[in-house]
Amino acid sequence: MTSINKPESEPSARDEHAFDGITFEVEEEEHTQEGQKVKRRGIYLWPNLITTAALLSGFYSIIASMNGDFTHAIYAIFLAALLDGLDGRVARAIGAQSAFGEQYDSLSDLLAFGVAPAILMYSWSLHDLGRIGLACCFVYTACAAFRLARFNVQIGVVDKRYFIGVASPLAAILMITIVWVGRDFPDIFDLREVSVQITNAVLIVAVGLLMISNIKYYSFKTFDRKRVPFAVLPIAVFIFAAMTYNIPVGILVISIIYALSGFVTTFMARKNTPT
């Protein structure tokens, strides 16, 4: 018997409609519980709505910084950081993780934690340095983009207990608390002084480089699933009570301690690695 090759089937009307240039739709592959690849259309609503709210907060922060409303710009980035920590948890809780959500979250993070803090710092302090201030802010934004791109390609490869390089939301919080403290203590952070402007320029570049470094930072992703001694709770209460004396300074101190903790974490990890 001779086998007759059947002609390839024509694309169905439904497939043609999906790519007719008019209909807006997302199609991506997912793995079923049996390990099979299936194509799904559409997106998960709730996690992406939270990501959109974070994107809006970052966009609002940029507009506020350009208008000189630095207080609202700071609050908007803080809100974006809270929403960024929420969307992933919601997606995992309801089983709504997707490749689209991961990429959308990264783009939102770039705006909220890469572009918005740089514009805030430039508008508040570095604009008097001219092109030097502009270049320093661009270095920070570019490093945030590199950090997010590297994170996306290393998903499932690196240890989830650690961030490689400081995470972009934490870098953004470090930058905005510098602005926040500087506004609360204008006598110490006199923006008319060139030395203060240069210090801010060095800080924003340094934080940007920390994002793309290979320094390990504890991610706290597994911390909420572990039991800890009861004594940890009173210590946390005292820390929060101390922060209420001056919230911006408290957040800045904690951010600096975390930024420096990466060097200790990296040293201990290398020390415990067998040669």
Can you walk through the features of this model?
The chain has 275 residues and is mainly alpha-helical. The chain has a single domain, classed as Four Helix Bundle (Hemerythrin (Met), subunit A), CATH 1.20.120.1760. The chain is built from nine helices and four strands, in the order αββααααβααβαα. Strands 1-2 form a two-stranded antiparallel sheet. Strand 1 and strand 2 form a beta hairpin. The radius of gyration is 23 Å and the shape is globular. The protein starts with 12 loop residues before the first helix and ends with a helix. The N terminus is likely disordered.
Biggest β-sheet: strands ordered side by side in the sheet: 1-2
Low-confidence residue ranges: 1-11
Query: For the record, what CATH class applies?
Result: Mainly Alpha
Taken from the alpha-carbon principal axes, the silhouette is globular
Count of beta strands: 4
- The helix content, as a percent range, equals 55-70%
Structural class: mainly alpha
- The H-and-E topology, N to C, reads as HEEHHHHEHHEHH
Radius of gyration: 23 Å
* Arithmetic mean of pLDDT: 84
CATH architecture: Up-down Bundle
CATH superfamily: CDP-alcohol phosphotransferase transmembrane (TM) domain
> Strand share of the residues?
5-15%
CATH topology: Four Helix Bundle (Hemerythrin (Met), subunit A)
Number of helices in the DSSP assignment? 9
Number of domains: 1
The biggest beta sheet, please? 2 strands, antiparallel
Amino-to-carboxy terminus distance: 64 Å
Annotation keywords:
275 residues; mainly alpha; Four Helix Bundle (Hemerythrin (Met), subunit A); 9 helices; 4 strands; 6% strand
